[in-house]
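REQUEST FORM: STRUCTURE PREDICTION
Request ID: SP-0412
Submitted by: Lab K.M.
Chain count: 1
Length (residues): 200
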Amino acid sequence: MKFTCVIPSFLGQYPGAASRRDEKLVRAVRSVLDQTYTDFELKVIADGCDLTMEIMKQFTDPRVEAVKIQKAPLWDGAPRNTGLELAKGEFIAYLDIDDFWGDGHLRKIAEGLGEYDWVFFNDLIFSGGEWVERTCDIRKLGMNGTSNICHKRELGARWAHRGYAHDHHFNQSLMMKSRKYGKIATPEYFVMHIPGNYDM
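STATUS: Completed
RESULT:
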């Protein structure tokens, strides 16, 4: 199997939480299942969240698995680490519940991987009524996140930092795991916090 997609999901309230995340979870999962590149599995990790497990019952595709874990502290690595432990794919990709993929996302990553152990890429953010490409700088805090990477499972990377900058710290750890990495063409990762059409 080429890819495992990991989606951590907590639908309870916390400071700064996006609204209507139940709808956005459905949009995110559908965007994975709509991929034109089909050699993948999807692990949705319910972070102590019964509502996530209830919502996931509607998805019967055998590539999808939802697993509930004990509630972790905010910005903890446990949900994504659980996804890594369950993963069977050669490469790991991540998706946040309030974002979504265009249907060519995994195909574009697969085409760009080459001999790399991990790759990073820009994303698209909905701003001012249009999609704007946002530059990923893998070395700068605040300019890279979980949306911007895909890595080999065999690197053994784990989410060790607890806090809002957990994604940046994880990406820095990838640099220490392997120097066989590169930036590839912008895939179709859409950062948008409004429920709506996920195939834009």
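NOTES: The chain has one domain: 3-191.
Reviewed by: T.R.
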